[in-house]
Amino acid sequence: MTDEQQGVGEADAFQRLWTPHRIVYIKGENKPETADEADCPFCRIPKMDDAEGLIVYRGKSAYAVLNLYPYNAGHLLVCPYRHVADYTELTEDETVEVAAITKQAMQTMREVTNPHGFNLGMNQGPVAGAGIAAHLHQHVVPRWGGDANFLPVIGHTKTMPQLLGDTREMLAAAWPTAKD
């Protein structure tokens, strides 16, 4: 490593944990430039195969996909296939399926990773924190005691104990098959 990466200057007690892969998120790469369907990752993902798209489950009107920039290992998004921005725009069938997939995500995660709790939520609009406001998505974030340690609070770094592909395989294998 260069001296720059070692923290040139006065020696201090800090170790550096470099996470250069996060710069794409910080810079907004992969974020749609418009609200159009053609520019929407949540409209493109279902056209991919499950492993490439990190899709855990496909329903009739919604699907579960791993978050490419997770807050925690196993962080899923439940997305309707239809390109809608607001929760009130969902049809009754879409609302029911988004709720059912969210419940199943929690049950599956409990079975395979035993989280102590969950954060569930939708950020409606950019001012509310929606990174991709044009396509509604429900966050399902598993939580464990102590998962918010000093790294994210002080070091602005989140350690992820498992690769996204491995997490997808584990959750998809444990997800019950659809019963028509």
UniProtKB/TrEMBL annotation:
Boundaries of every HIT domain copy: 41-150
Top-level division of the source organism's lineage: Bacteria
The protein's enzyme class: transferase
Residue ranges of the motif Histidine triad motif: 135-139
Keyword field contains Cell membrane: no
GO molecular function, one term: ATP:ADP adenylyltransferase activity
Keywords from the named record: Nucleotide-binding, Nucleotidyltransferase, Transferase
Pfam families found in the cross-reference section: HIT
Listed EC numbers: 2.7.7.53
PANTHER family tied to this protein: AP-4-A PHOSPHORYLASE (PTHR42997:SF1), HIT FAMILY HYDROLASE (PTHR42997)
Name of the protein this chain belongs to: ATP adenylyltransferase
